[in-house]
Specification:
With about 280 residues, the chain is α+β, with helices and mostly antiparallel strands. It has two domains: about 170 residues, no CATH class; about 100 residues, no CATH class. The protein is about 35% helix and about 15% strand. It contains ten helices and twelve strands. The strands form five sheets. A three-stranded antiparallel beta sheet has the order 3-2-4, with no helix packed on it. A hairpin with a 5-residue loop joins strand 11 and strand 12. The protein is elongated. It starts with a strand and ends in a 5-residue tail after the last helix.
Length: about 280
């Protein structure tokens, strides 16, 4: 990950087990070039080569580095780890915000930690204004992230980036609050997934909410799926569509049915949070 002048997050690790699976480490996933949609993704597991886009190789930037010794011992006990950030730039951020950087998150005021930097970056990468402003640059190189404007703006973006991170990892309690139903029993075989618009609601904000049915075969469907979620892109993919298409010819089990409904919540929440991020000025 690059700031305007120098690298912030240090060495990228391409599909490297040691640094991602130790102590549930987190990694920021970004391609070096974007032929499609800009942005980034988050992972705490080993990923595939084309996680973010079918056309662009992605890189993983873990927020912590571990030694070879940690690779052997991580299942028994967490040992010391070091933040994967350039300390010179962290010092600049600390001075600008009037905060102290610490290696591990603590419930104390006046400090910030690697997870806060990750959440800040994640929020910036999901700012529609940022993506539009720098879309030509995002096509040719790693994302460049501006320094935080001030402490207040920084913490606002950290909060929203954290919500987004938890939603994308399906760790947020919100993903279990389903907004869809799967009302018809049957063989649960995916034949030809399709979306059918069924409802349009006028909202108080003068916008509309369009809901529909996602058919997995001629008899069974997920109902109440927002059109926004069905069409939503993360990177170069539309997860609500791709997840079903990748399972064409398969029978969904109970966990699959629940998982797909979590995906719909996650995509809907992503759209909402991105709208909130867009209301915060990103330099």
């Amino acid at each position: 990950m690059i700031y305007y002048d120098k690298e912030l997050i240090g060495r990228p690790f391409y599909n490297t087990m040691r640094h991602l699976l130790v102590d549930n480490n987190l990694g920021l996933v970004v391609p070096r070039q974007n032929k499609e949609h800009g942005g980034g993704f988050i992972t705490n597991r080993i990923i595939g080569q084309k996680l973010f886009s079918a056309y662009d190789i992605n890189y993983v930037f873990p927020i912590y580095n571990y030694s070879e010794k940690a690779q052997i011992r991580f299942e028994n006990k967490r040992i010391d780890r070091t933040p994967n950030f350039k300390i010179t730039i962290l010092n600049k951020i600390a001075a600008k915000l009037g905060l102290q950087f610490i290696n591990e998150k603590e419930p104390t005021s006046g400090t910030f930690a690697p997870i806060d930097i990750l959440d800040y970056i994640y929020a910036v990468l999901h700012s529609p204004t940022y993506r539009e402003k720098y879309k030509e640059f995002l096509k040719i190189d790693f994302p460049r992230v501006p320094y935080p404007k001030d402490a207040n703006t920084f913490w606002q973006l950290v909060k929203l980036g954290g919500e987004l991170r938890q939603v994308h990892l399906l760790e947020s309690p919100k993903v279990n609050q389903f907004i869809t139903t799967y009302p018809i029993t049957g063989n649960n075989l995916i034949t030809k997934p399709r979306f059918e618009l069924t409802q349009t609601h006028q909202l108080a904000s003068s916008s509309t909410c369009q809901l529909g049915t996602v058919w997995i075969n001629d008899q069974q469907y997920f109902d109440g799926v927002p059109l926004t979620a069905w069409n939503f892109y993360i990177g170069g993919y539309q997860p609500a569509q791709k997840w079903l298409k990748d399972r064409k010819g398969r029978v969904l089990n109970f966990e699959d049915i629940l998982h797909y409904q979590k995906i719909i919540v996650a995509l809907t929440e992503t759209a909402r949070i991105m709208g909130e991020i867009n209301g915060i000025e990103v330099e």
